[in-house]
Amino acid sequence: MPLSPQFTDVGGDGLVAARHLWHYGYQPTIFYPKQSKNDLYQRLATQLKNLDVPFTEDFNESLKDTDHVVDAIFGFSFSGDVRDPFKDPVIAMETTKVPVLSVDAPSSWSIEDGPPASGPGAKFHPATLISLTAPKPLVKHFTGTHFIGGRFIPQSIAQKYDLDIPEYHGVDQIAEVSGTGTDAKKKEVVGLAERQG
């Protein structure tokens, strides 16, 4: 399962996901070509190495032997064009039949406008999106299965920022908001993103 750790100001979501997946019995492989000098990311990478989680420099080769991809290359602060060493992995995710789950924003997508008009990522539509904390405006361009993760927002913060928090069931840490893909549900989620954007 290639994971592409995100290393923007959002955090090491891909590294954290890999650690959790390993503890749940999965066998992740990490694609992390530009390792951060940030102490937190270095410690997360060390934890993964201590767990014997493999790191790869060849995303395309790892993609041949996986059944899922967790896309956490870029976070919601991404802007501009996709550059090396991430261009080839984005193109590979665009064309693969392997299900891709994107964290917070599909890599290459504008947080406001969705996929780029041309170039790497223009045809990238992951099967699943997990929005962290709240959906971003790009969800109006997303057609797959959509979850919100982040059962940690205090009511005072939700009220202060006018956040609509989904209903979480039992001990779930995520809530599916894609429903059955109906137009009414889609409008509800897009409206939620617009109010928070």
From TrEMBL:
Matching Pfam families: YjeF_N
GO cellular component: mitochondrion
Keyword annotations from UniProtKB, A to Z: Isomerase, Metal-binding, NAD, NADP, Nucleotide-binding, Potassium
Domain YjeF N-terminal, residue spans: 1-165
This enzyme's EC code(s): 5.1.99.6
Keyword NAD in annotation: yes
Catalytic activity: (6R)-NADHX = (6S)-NADHX; (6R)-NADPHX = (6S)-NADPHX
EC category name: isomerase
Protein origin, superkingdom: Eukaryota
GO molecular function: metal ion binding; NAD(P)HX epimerase activity; nucleotide binding
Protein's recorded name: NAD(P)H-hydrate epimerase
Organism listed in the record: Alectoria fallacina
Lineage: Eukaryota, Fungi, Dikarya, Ascomycota, Pezizomycotina
